[in-house]
């Protein structure tokens, strides 16, 4: 299914009894409408047509499923608008994972290949391979609402749109913006799907060991969309409950004090030697993973490409035989 979704053109030969399986794969990959059926080509009993309209019981061994190339077909930048075909548009919000192609799911890869329009923050769009016939619509990272409405407008005109988002699109990302806009007129009837992606927290945790092995909370330190007082209260509550914390958006060029303040709040409830994982550019070319003490957390070491995992009272570290330091939180919590 993933290969059919991502390929430009394909042929599946000698269908026979495998026809229902091939048809299901084409349908799941979003390519059934493009697929053509050819039976006994060049013979007197030749039959051709749309594969989706073929009766499975009538398919002989000598038949072929064909996916024509998308190059120089409707959907190219110079092609007429898709609304002329009368087919419905759709918005699919796709999670790219933290960085690189290895953590992109087959489902997400297929939707990116099938999309006619790609919409997203410029940095994230640059991570998606350029494909002939696709339109790319980059924008700034502070115009999420406008980006969502733009994507929905394209879908209203019959376009198949992929909105790209780093990590998982439902975690401090574009899925919320799209669904919020899609809940209002004139977008209520536009189909919207959200595809999950690997989160930065899970990727960083895997690199360090298993610090999220027990209950944990996820908090964004950015006060751009909520007041710092709300963030501080949530940090206190999570720390008092002895939850491991995954802290997103810890700092930027314009936000330099939040990490220091968060450290002070957490030290009211956590020991100074509580393990902290600093994961930066996980999966990217500048990947860095460090394990430090909470008391040694320096705001100067943190930026927007960093995620912090703050251990609980039960989180442990150890040095393996090869010298590698690992961190984990036991699944069992002491009674009393």
Automatic annotation (TrEMBL):
Gene Ontology molecular function terms on file: methyltransferase activity
Xref: Gene3D superfamilies: Cobalt-precorrin-4 Transmethylase, Domain 1, Methyltransferase, Cobalt-precorrin-4 Transmethylase, Domain 2
Pfam families: TP_methylase
One GO term of the biological process aspect: cobalamin biosynthetic process
Annotated InterPro entries: 4pyrrol_Mease (IPR000878), 4pyrrol_Methylase_sf (IPR035996), 4pyrrole_Mease_sub1 (IPR014777), 4pyrrole_Mease_sub2 (IPR014776), Cbl_synth_CobJ/CibH_dom (IPR006363), Precorrin_MeTrfase (IPR051810)
Domain called Tetrapyrrole methylase: residue spans: 91-297
Involved pathway(s): Cofactor biosynthesis; adenosylcobalamin biosynthesis
Keyword annotations of the record: Cobalamin biosynthesis, Methyltransferase, S-adenosyl-L-methionine, Transferase
PANTHER family: COBALT-FACTOR III C(17)-METHYLTRANSFERASE-RELATED (PTHR47036:SF1)
NCBIfam families: cobJ_cbiH
Name this polypeptide is given: Precorrin-3B C(17)-methyltransferase
């Amino acid at each position: 299914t993933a290969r059919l979704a991502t390929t430009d053109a394909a042929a599946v030969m000698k269908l026979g009894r495998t026809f229902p399986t091939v048809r299901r794969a084409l349908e799941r990959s979003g390519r059934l409408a493009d697929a053509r059926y050819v039976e006994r080509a060049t013979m007197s009993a030749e039959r051709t047509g749309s594969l989706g309209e073929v009766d499975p019981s009538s398919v002989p061994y000598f038949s072929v499923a064909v996916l024509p190339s998308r190059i120089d077909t409707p959907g190219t930048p110079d092609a007429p608008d898709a609304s002329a075909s009368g087919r419905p548009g759709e918005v699919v919000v796709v999670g790219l994972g933290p960085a690189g192609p290895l953590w992109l799911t087959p489902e997400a890869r297929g939707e990116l290949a099938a999309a006619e329009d790609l919409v997203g923050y410029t940095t994230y769009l640059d991570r998606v391979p350029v494909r002939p016939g696709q339109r790319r619509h980059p924008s700034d990272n502070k115009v999420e609402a406008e980006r969502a409405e733009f994507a929905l407008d394209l879908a209203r005109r019959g376009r198949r749109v992929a909105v790209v988002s780093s990590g998982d699109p439902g975690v401090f990302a574009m899925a919320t913006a799209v669904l919020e806009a899609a809940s209002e007129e004139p977008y209520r009837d536009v189909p919207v799907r959200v595809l999950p992606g690997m989160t930065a927290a899970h990727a960083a945790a895997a690199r360090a060991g298993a610090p999220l092995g027990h209950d944990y909370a996820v908090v964004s330190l950015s006060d751009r969309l909520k007041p710092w007082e709300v963030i501080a209260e949530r940090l206190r509550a999570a720390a008092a409950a002895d939850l491991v914390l995954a802290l997103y958006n810890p700092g930027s060029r314009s936000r330099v004090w939040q990490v220091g303040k968060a450290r002070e709040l957490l030290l009211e409830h956590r020991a100074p030697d509580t393990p902290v994982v600093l994961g930066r550019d996980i999966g990217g070319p500048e990947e860095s993973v460090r394990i430090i003490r909470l008391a040694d957390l320096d705001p100067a070491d943190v930026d927007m490409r960093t995620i912090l995992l703050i251990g609980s009272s039960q989180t442990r570290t150890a040095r393996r035989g090869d010298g590698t330091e690992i961190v984990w939180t036991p699944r069992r919590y002491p009674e009393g």
